[in-house]
Amino acid sequence: AAAAEKSSHQVGLIDMAHVFKNYSKFKSMTEEMQADAKAAQDKAQAMVEDMKAIQTSMKELSEGSADYTAKESKLLSLQTELETYRKVQQREFLRKEAEIYKEVYMEVQDAVQKYAKYYKYTLIIRFNRQDVGAAENPQEIISSMNRQVVYYREQDDLTTPILNYLNDEFTKKGASGAKAPAPAAAGPRLGALAGRSTGCDR
Q1: What is the distance between the alpha carbons of residues 170 and 176, in angstroms, rounded to a whole number?
Q2: Is residue 197 within 8 Å of 160, Cβ to Cβ?
Q3: Which of 94, 135, 153, 174 could join 140 in a cystine, given CB atoms 3.0 to 4.6 angstroms apart?
Q4: Residue 177 Cα distances to 48, 83, 162, 183, angstroms
């Protein structure tokens, strides 16, 4: 019996791209980041408009005059400020984006681990669940044909139950974006999780 247990392998599949695209928390976090990016862009544009106004007013002044020199200095200062602001914001948004992907990936990984342990999966592989027949342009067709997974059983696609579990947890927390607390016992929670999987009841 022990030998049979060791030799028994069960492989599951998950479409991570589909999970990320349809996970409510990921959508919420990316939308918030996009709103911040829009606000930063508006601020930068306002700085550009200020510089344009200064340039316009400089045309009415004599080059070399005290007022002209003062405005020229202000213009150069704003140009430096704008360049610095844009670089800082770009680095900040790249950092935020990386943190969002990391946080969501860790949550997906945790849900997959719980599901795999509960149903005795020994290996979970990433794959693309899109049907090759749905590909239209040449690039999509070639990419689909080069996928590693050529055939799989529908019940071994864990994408839907994992996604439903994550969205349910996010909804229970009031869509606050906080991480889900670790369950005291995996069985009951994962039993509910598994119930949403097509053909996954074991």
Answers
A1: 7
A2: yes
A3: 135
A4: 35, 33, 17, 17
Contacts for 55 with CB less than 8 Å, ≥ 6 apart: 75
Q: Which residues pair with 126 in a beta bridge?
A: 14
What is the CA 137 to chain-centroid distance, rounded? Answer: 26
Phi, psi of 12 (to 5 degrees): -115, 160
In the chain, the largest separation of any two C-alpha atoms, in whole Å, equals: 96
C-alpha span between 51 and 73 (Å, rounded): 11
The rounded distance, in Å, linking the Cα atoms of 175 and 27 is 11
CA dihedral 12, 18, 24, 30 (to 10 degrees): 130
Task: Count the Cβ atoms, other than its own, within 10 Å of residue 111.
Answer: 23
**For 28-79, what is each residue's pLDDT tens digit?**
999 999 999 999 999 999 999 999 999 999 999 898 899 999 999 999 999 9
* CA dist., res. 126 & res. 196, Å (int): 20
Q: Does the pLDDT at position 94 exceed 60? A: yes
3-state secondary structure string across 56-119: HHHCCCCCCCHHHHHHHHHHHHHHHHHHHHHHHHHHHHHHHHHHHHHHHHHHHHHHHHHHHHHC
One-letter amino acid of 90: Q
Distance CA 103, CA 124 (A): 19
- pTM tops 0.85: no
Instruction: Assign 132 to helix, strand or coil.
Output: helix
